[in-house]
């Protein structure tokens, strides 16, 4: 339904914007809705809080009333860009005057915690807002095209300097009101306040630096992954494609190459295990199937469920399955041979099936030892079992069972 | 003669200044006692609201 998404010309609905949130996203959401820089609103809330705690009450009410929108705070303290064309300085100045009027009114009514605290907090909030705004603007990677190329560096520096001056002035006023400027009397308070002010000033740049490093690291990882993928494609797929072009006159060879490449790709996609390693039972079965496929020119489809390390019994099972696949490829016709392996904690079962004409086991001459010794006898010697399901015209299925953990 | 469109900023400014005028008038006729402690916030609020209205409804 398109009703949920407002028209681009309409203002967004009033919601908490968690993507640009510092606390709960109230100021960010209000700023988006009203087209006001959220930092201005944050300064207003801080000032109202310092005056009589009203800011906290309003913020809590709005936080509870407004539904959240957007993703989690992955974007951190990103400040959304104010819609273009609006006179943000007029809005900021107007809001400042309104807050000042409110503060004076509270002071007149006696809702006041003292000049020593309120005015420094208001000044520090305004200065901090300017610094945050400046930092966010500088961190914006894609300024709009209609902005001047130099982004008015002089004005930006002026804003940053004004913000720093406000914060430092607020700290000094606070120290003065608290009679802490006399060094002999109290050294600790000025140090703490200066440290707090310094943190307030440097925090945006520090956060931007950390975020920039994280972005750079992520980009480097992506670049390495792309390079690794490209190298793998070059070493495997492209080489195979070139080989297939040269062997285009031999369809059987081309099919074999394609299937081998498919196996390698699947193995790589399913966990990065290189094709050809025989460390596990499933891998050994795949290798055996590939060998049969290459030597007899019949497709062998392998499906495995589960896996386990390859031991001596597993080797025997793989050898028996390979022998069954060889028989299926030799006598089962051109149809693909199916190998299905289910590897559990207690038991391993492998089914090798073809869709050939089938045969009568009793009619096999005694000197043919393929099924009798290489499959049935081998499985029995390793504590397993081999069962043949076959019949004239019904194909052949060799069922291999092996208990694990004996 | 072309007709100008609706301007919310002008409306806000008009209301704010009119309200201030009414308050001053009431003070003049002694209907209320307006001290500097209340006059200063009122003036600031008027100017601030006009600036906000102009900033919010200015040309895009």
**Which percent range fits the helix content of chain B?**
over 70%
**What fraction strand of chain A?**
5-15%
Could you report the average pLDDT of chain A, rounded to the nearest whole number? 79
Number of helices of chain A: 11
Low-confidence stretches of chain A: 1-8, 71-85, 142-147
Helical fraction of chain A? 55-70%
Largest sheet of chain B: none
Distance between the terminal alpha carbons of chain B, to the nearest Å?
A: 25 Å
The ordered H/E elements of chain B are: HH
Order of helices and strands of chain A: EHHHEHHHHHHEHEEHEE
Class by SSE composition of chain B: mainly alpha
Number of helices of chain B: 2
Residue share in β-strands of chain B: under 5%
Number of domains of chain B: 1
Can you tell me the residue ranges of chain B where pLDDT is under 50 for at least 5 consecutive residues? none
Structural class of the secondary structure composition of chain A? alpha/beta
- Give the largest chain-chain interface (CB within 8 Å): A-B, 27 and 21 residues
Q: How many domains of chain A? A: 2
Q: How would you summarize what this structure contains?
A:
With 406 residues, chain A is α/β, with parallel strands linked by helices. Chain A is built from eleven helices and seven strands.
Structure report:
The complex is a heterodimer of chains A (406) and B (60). Chain A folds into two domains: 2-141 and 150-221, no CATH class; 274-403, Heat Shock Protein 90 (2-Layer Sandwich), CATH 3.30.565. Helix content of chain A is 58%, strand content 10%. Chain A has eleven helices and seven strands. Chain B has helices spanning 8-28, 36-57. Chain B is elongated, with a radius of gyration of 15 Å. Chain B has one domain. The mean pLDDT of chain B is 83. Chain B is 72% helix and 0% strand. Chain B has two helices and no strands. Chains A and B meet through helix 4 of A and helix 2 of B.
């Amino acid at each position: 339904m398109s009703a949920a998404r407002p028209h681009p010309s309409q203002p967004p609905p009033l919601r908490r914007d968690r993507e640009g949130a510092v606390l709960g996203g109230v100021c960010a959401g209000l700023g988006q809705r009203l087209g006001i820089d959220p930092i201005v609103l944050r300064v207003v809330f801080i000032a109202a809080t310092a005056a009589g705690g009203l800011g906290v009450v309003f913020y809590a009410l709005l936080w509870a009333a407004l539904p959240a929108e957007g993703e989690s705070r992955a974007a951190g303290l990103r400040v959304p860009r104010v819609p273009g064309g609006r006179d943000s300085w007029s809005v900021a100045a107007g809001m400042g005057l309104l807050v000042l009027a409110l503060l004076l009114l509270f002071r007149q009514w006696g809702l006041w915690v003292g000049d020593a605290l309120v005015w420094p907090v208001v000044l520090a909030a305004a200065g901090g807002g300017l610094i945050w705004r400046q930092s966010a603007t500088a961190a914006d990677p894609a300024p709009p095209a209609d902005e001047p190329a130099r982004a008015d560096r002089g004005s930006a520096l002026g804003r940053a300097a004004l913000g720093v001056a406000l914060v430092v002035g607020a700290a000094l006023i606070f120290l003065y009101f608290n009679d802490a400027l006399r060094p002999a009397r109290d050294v600790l308070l000025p140090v703490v306040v200066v440290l707090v002010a310094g943190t307030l000033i440097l925090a945006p740049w520090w956060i931007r630096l950390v975020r920039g490093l994280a972005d750079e690291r992520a980009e480097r990882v992506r670049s390495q992954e792309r390079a690794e993928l490209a190298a793998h494609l070059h070493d495997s797929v492209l080489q195979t494609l070139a080989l297939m072009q040269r062997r285009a006159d031999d369809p059987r060879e081309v099919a074999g190459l394609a299937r081998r490449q498919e196996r390698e790709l699947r193995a790589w996609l399913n966990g990065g295990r290189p094709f050809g390693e025989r460390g596990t039972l499933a891998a050994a079965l795949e290798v055996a199937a590939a060998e049969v496929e290459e030597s007899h020119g019949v497709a062998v489809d392998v499906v495995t469920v589960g896996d386990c390390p390859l031991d001596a019994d597993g080797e025997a099972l793989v050898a028996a399955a390979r022998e069954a696949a060889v028989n299926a490829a030799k006598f089962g016709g051109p149809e693909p041979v199916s190998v299905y392996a289910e590897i559990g904690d207690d038991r391993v079962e492998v089914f090798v099936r073809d869709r050939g004409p089938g045969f009568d086991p009793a009619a096999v001459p005694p000197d043919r030892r393929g099924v009798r010794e290489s499959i049935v006898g081998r499985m029995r010697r390793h504590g397993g079992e081999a069962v043949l399901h076959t019949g004239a015209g019904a194909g052949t299925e060799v069922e291999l069972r092996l208990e694990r953990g004996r | 003669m072309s007709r100008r469109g609706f301007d919310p900023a002008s409306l806000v400014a008009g209301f704010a200044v009119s309200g201030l005028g009414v308050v001053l008038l009431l003070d003049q006729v002694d209907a209320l006692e307006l001290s500097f402690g209340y006059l200063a916030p009122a003036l600031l609020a008027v100017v601030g609201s006009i600036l906000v209205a102009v900033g919010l409804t200015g040309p895009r």
